[in-house]
Amino acid sequence: MLIRLYAENPSERDLARVTAALDDDGIVVYPTDSVYAFGCSIRSPRAIERMRRIKGKRETTFSVVFRDLAQAAEYCRVDNAAFRVLKRNLPGPFTFILPVSSRMPDKAFERRRTIGVRIPDNAIPRAIVEALGAPLLTTSVHDDDETEYMTDPGLIEERCGADVALVVDGGPGSVVPTTVVDLTGDEPVVLREGAGELR
């Protein structure tokens, strides 16, 4: 199923359909400020397990989409230096690696001690998280051979529709992924150059 949402003014009725699917242990595909992504509620162990199967059991690139910095700080440890970097760059096309806190459900990251934090500069995913009342565990949507990112929501629905509850059409996606920055050390370390320029 394809649901059209507009970043400027997402329909509350359609947002409710998306969050109902997520609350029902569903996986959705949604736009970000970089590439399209799979997402599920971090409160849903069943959906997390299904997303692992879709992406492959050894998937290690799950990140978490938060509504804002205050919500992110509930699930990861943010010192003053890291907070300043986050404040300067988010919302934006970044994935920041931070130490996980005890509030993160065990099923979401198993024994990992860090998480990738996303606060996209796109109102759609932030509105979904706000309406859901929980962050989204997330990972990028690739084509069949995992070499390219899929950008057309209609094509994504054709290819992935059997595996997900719905696809949110937010217009054409980008092929440029996020910039990944490790904030677990003394200084920020760029692990992957992407759409964001670190400030």
Number of strands: 10
Helical content (DSSP H or I, runs of 4+): 25-40%
- Strand fraction band? 15-25%
Low-confidence stretches: none
Number of helical segments with 4 or more residues: 7
Could you tell me the radius of gyration in angstroms?
16 Å
- Which sequence of SSEs, written as H and E, runs from N to C? EHEEHEHHEHEHEHEEE
Largest sheet: 10 strands, mixed
The best one-word shape is globular
Measured between the Cα atoms of the first and last residue, the distance is 39 Å
The class by helix and strand makeup works out as: alpha/beta
Secondary structure: elements and pairs:
Layout: E1 2-4, H1 12-23, E2 28-30, E3 37-41, H2 45-55, E4 63-65, H3 69-75, H4 80-89, E5 94-99, H5 106-109, E6 114-118, H6 123-132, E7 136-140, H7 153-160, E8 166-169, E9 179-182, E10 189-192
Parallel strand pairs: 1-8, 2-8, 4-6, 5-9
Antiparallel strand pairs: 2-3, 3-7, 4-7, 5-6, 9-10
Helix pairs in contact: 1-6
Task: Give a structural overview.
The chain is of the alpha/beta class and 199 residues long. The protein contains seven helices and ten strands. The chain has helices at 12-23, 45-55, 69-75, 80-89, 106-109, 123-132, 153-160; strands at 2-4, 28-30, 37-41, 63-65, 94-99, 114-118, 136-140, 166-169, 179-182, 189-192. Strands 1-8-2-3-7-4-6-5-9-10 form a ten-stranded mixed beta sheet, with helices on both faces. A hairpin with a 6-residue loop joins strand 2 and strand 3 (37-41). Helix 1 packs across helix 6. It is globular and about 45 Å long. The N and C termini lie far apart (39 Å).
